[in-house]
Amino acid sequence: MKILTTDHLTREFGGVIAVNDVNFSVEQGLVTGLIGPNGAGKTTLFNQITGVDKPTRGTITFDGKDITGLPAWKVSRLGIARTFQNIRLYKELTVVENVMMGLHFKVGKDPFHGRFLQAVKSYVFAQRENREMYERAMEWLHFFGIESHAQDFARSLPYGMQRELEIARALAADPKLLFLDEPAAGMNPAETAHLMDVVDKIRSLGVTVVLIEHDMKLVMNICDQITVLNFGTKIAEGTPQAIKQNKDVIEAYLGKEEE
Amino acid sequence: MINFFMLILIYSGVYALMAIGQNCITGSTGMLSLCHAGFFCIGSYVTAIMCKMFGISFWLSLPVAALAAGFVGFLIGVPTLRLKGDYLCIATLGLGEIIRNIATNINPVGITSIPRASLFGYQFSSRNKGAFIILIWVFVLIFYILFQQLAHSRLGRAMNAIREDEVAAQSNGINVTKYKISSFVLGAAIGGIAGSFQTAYTLTVSPSSYTFMVSVMVLCTVVLGGMGNAKAVILGAFIIQFISYFQQLTGLTNIIPPQANQMIFGLILVVMMIWRPQGLLGRDKYRYGDPRTFKEKLLAVAKRKGGER
């Protein structure tokens, strides 16, 4: 079953076409890789889907609902979480507060239905709500094994842990679909290996994962499906084995062979 | 001398209230706004008009002043909060001046001989400073507690998140626009309440006392104390008021003219930015995870106190 499809998605920045007529789809429960040379439009495609940016043309369907052009906060409430290429943590908040932010809209649903009444409830019963959120956040920190840093400022964490914290924050929102934008960028081989375990664990939780990555070893090892973009256009789609053999993909990465 | 100290205590109370409002806008949500003098002005005028012209009691005018300032904050906030950083600062600066100029144009003298506030038959006169100090600091305490509760709730955390990173906050499902406007309105309303108390003390309002310098002073207070830390902001208010009345307190008015204050505040801002950008007390780091409820904590404190005796 396809959980996410984009239909003829196009994004133009003035004269530059960053994403051109892309039909991208994500199978539920699988890890989908999105690869392509720098400037191929991978992050732009991510931004369209997660509502950070609005597409020029085309539609995005998630879980049977049309989410084209919805603001980011609505998209995330529907169950799409993401991380960012350049880490975007709340640096002056503690580690556990960062994860609690991921839970922001997961608590305080009933019995107060109106948005305003919910806010009042969150204000009056803040301590009770904090305790609930804290416990759930700590579970996620345990999941990533960074619970000992819970009360440190996020900025004081080492790079690899910051990446993991960002994933933890995204997962805390209990998403159906998780977008990882270059999670292994700047990581050493040991950290990358750890990240592969983490992605495996996330898949076993039943979360569908889409990841942009340049580390081919990682992509070929953990992805079930791969989509290749080049100059904003989709040039290939398929299993890792098929992508490895694909002529267009090899050409995009290594250039054309001289006859 | 003691009279002067009491005066400083009153004014630092008024400024502490304003600074709590500014802290909500700048310290928590990270919006650099410079129109707190405008909200202050509106609060003062609403109280003055209601007490003088309609003969309504001060206590009734207090919430109305807060609502009026909050409403103006909403009107200002909706168009300007799309701007960020310096641009927001300039836009709000202009709007703050507009409020003052409107007041000047309507009546450059202002309103005088406003009836005194009274509580259970006791009249708060300007001569009896002690009662007024208690009144204003009780309100500072109330707003401090209310603000701390906000800062440590889900809503306050969302505000902090917006300050740290708007894009990330959006992807955490936070409606950034709504939170920004709410925080702005809240800060404005507290500014209005501060204005109300100012009127109740001086019993006159005149447009010349709501200049741009007031906004700068409030911002300076927040930066000096520590952004996002209500305790620090109150300390900052006291220090700033002390500095601004220093010459009069020591009788050096002839040597250091009052205009020098502007230089001193500028200097404070620069020095703080270089050596201690987090403010005197720094940010308030709240440890979540103390699994006790407020009631249990209170009981624990009471028990400890009892044990000592």
Q: Pairing-aware structural class of the strands and helices of chain B? A: mainly alpha
Task: Determine Rg of chain A (CA atoms, Å).
Answer: 19 Å
CATH topology of the domain at 85-185 in chain A: Rossmann fold
Order of helices and strands of chain B: HHHHEEHHHHHHHHH
Record the strand order, biggest sheet of chain A: 7-8-9-4-10-11
Query: What is the CATH topology descriptor of chain B?
Result: ABC transporter involved in vitamin B12 uptake, BtuC
**Total helical segments of chain A:** 10
Low-confidence stretches of chain A: none
Question: Can you summarize the main beta sheet of chain B?
Answer: 2 strands, antiparallel
Number of strands of chain B: 2
Kindly report the spatial arrangement of strands forming the biggest sheet of chain B.
Answer: 1-2
Task: Please sum up the structure shown.
Chain A contains 10 helices and 11 strands. Chain A has helices at residues 42-50, 72-78, 95-102, 115-124, 126-144, 159-172, 189-204, 216-222, 240-245, 247-254; strands at 2-13, 16-22, 25-27, 31-35, 57-62, 65-66, 80-82, 177-181, 208-212, 225-230, 233-238. The longest helix of chain A has 19 residues, at 126-144.
Tell me about this structure.
- The complex is a heterodimer of chains A (259) and B (309).
- Chain A is α/β, with parallel strands linked by helices and 259 residues long.
- The longest helix of chain A is centred in the middle third of the chain and has 19 residues, at 126-144.
- Among the domains of chain A are: 1-25 and 55-65, no CATH class; 85-185, P-loop containing nucleotide triphosphate hydrolases (Rossmann fold).
- Chain A starts with a strand and ends in a 5-residue tail after the last helix.
- Chain A has a six-stranded mixed sheet with strand order 7-8-9-4-10-11, sandwiched between helices.
- Chain A is globular, with a radius of gyration of 19 Å.
- Chain A has ten helices and eleven strands.
- Chain B is mainly α.
- Chain B has a single domain (2-308), classed as ABC transporter involved in vitamin B12 uptake, BtuC.
- Helices cover 72% and strands 2% of the residues of chain B.
- Chain B has helices spanning 2-28, 36-53, 58-80, 85-106, 129-151, 154-164, 166-171, 176-202, 212-225, 230-244, 246-250, 260-275, 294-308, and strands spanning 117-119, 122-124.
- A two-stranded antiparallel ribbon of chain B has the order 1-2.
- In chain B, helix 1 packs across helix 9 (212-225), helix 1 (2-28) packs across helix 10 and helix 2 runs parallel beside helix 4.
- The model of chain B has no long low-confidence stretch (mean pLDDT 83).
